[in-house]
């Protein structure tokens, strides 16, 4: 089942994720729904906050052909899609700067500087704790989704000049969010 994706201006995006204590059938279903929602929206990552939930879960699926060539070999060790439960970044290295978008900020993308490589620990759907080291676009996606789980958004990673350049679009999103919450009351 796909969910509505929460957009900028809605409170759910600012909530910090709560650790998942036990991997229940409901958690597995949530992960499956998040994958379906991400794929339907043609995204490469989605965090629980973006479907209005606060479990510490994100899903990532970076197509191999979208990956930066020099990172393909390293990242091929990581099976896709990635379902990360209670993830944390335990190490990072280098820098990369590239255009970044977010399903909660439709039609907005800005260059963002991120670590070139990150090491992350997470629990998979079988309850196993795993550690991966990823680079390039996949590393960017991991950093972006873990930001979501902390309530940190693309707009927080923008410079003042970048924020100004998309101010009109942000305003429209905020107005839409007010309508969305008025409609649910
Ligand atoms: Zn996002």
Characterise this structure.
By secondary structure, the chain is α+β, with helices and mostly antiparallel strands. It has 5 helices and 7 strands; from the N terminus they run H-E-E-H-E-E-E-E-E-H-H-H. The chain has helices at 25-40, 72-75, 136-149, 160-165, 167-184; strands at residues 45-47, 57-60, 82-93, 96-101, 109-114, 117-123, 129-135. The strands form 2 sheets. A 5-stranded antiparallel β-sheet has the order 1-2-3-6-7. It has a two-stranded antiparallel sheet with strand order 4-5. A hairpin with a 5-residue loop joins strand 6 and strand 7. The mean pLDDT is 95.
Q: Average the pLDDT over all residues and give the rounded result.
A: 95
CATH superfamily (homologous) name: Peptide deformylase
H and E string: HEEHEEEEEHHH
**Strand order within the widest sheet?**
1-2-3-6-7
Low-pLDDT sequence parts: none
CATH first level:
Alpha Beta
Work out the helix count. 5
The major beta sheet can be summarized as: 5 strands, antiparallel
Which class best fits the helix and strand makeup?
A: alpha+beta
- β-strand percent reads 15-25%
């Amino acid at each position: 089942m796909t969910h509505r994706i929460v957009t900028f201006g809605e409170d759910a995006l600012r909530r910090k994720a709560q650790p998942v204590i036990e991997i229940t059938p409901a958690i597995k279903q949530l992960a499956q729904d998040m994958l379906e929602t991400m794929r339907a929206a043609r995204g490469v990552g989605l965090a629980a906050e973006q479907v209005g939930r606060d479990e510490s879960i994100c899903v990532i699926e970076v197509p191999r052909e979208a990956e930066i060539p020099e990172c393909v070999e390293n990242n091929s060790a990581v099976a896709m899609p990635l379902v990360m439960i209670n993830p944390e970044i335990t190490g990072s290295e280098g820098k990369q700067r590239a255009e970044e978008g977010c399903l909660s900020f439709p039609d907005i993308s800005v260059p963002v500087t991120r670590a070139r490589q990150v090491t992350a620990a997470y629990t998979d759907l079988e309850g196993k704790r795993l550690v991966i080291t990823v680079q390039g676009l996949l590393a960017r996606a991991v950093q972006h989704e873990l930001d979501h789980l902390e309530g940190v958004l693309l707009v927080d990673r923008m410079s003042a000049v970048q924020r100004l350049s998309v101010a009109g679009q942000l305003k429209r999103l905020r107005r839409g969010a007010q309508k969305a919450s008025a409609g649910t009351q």
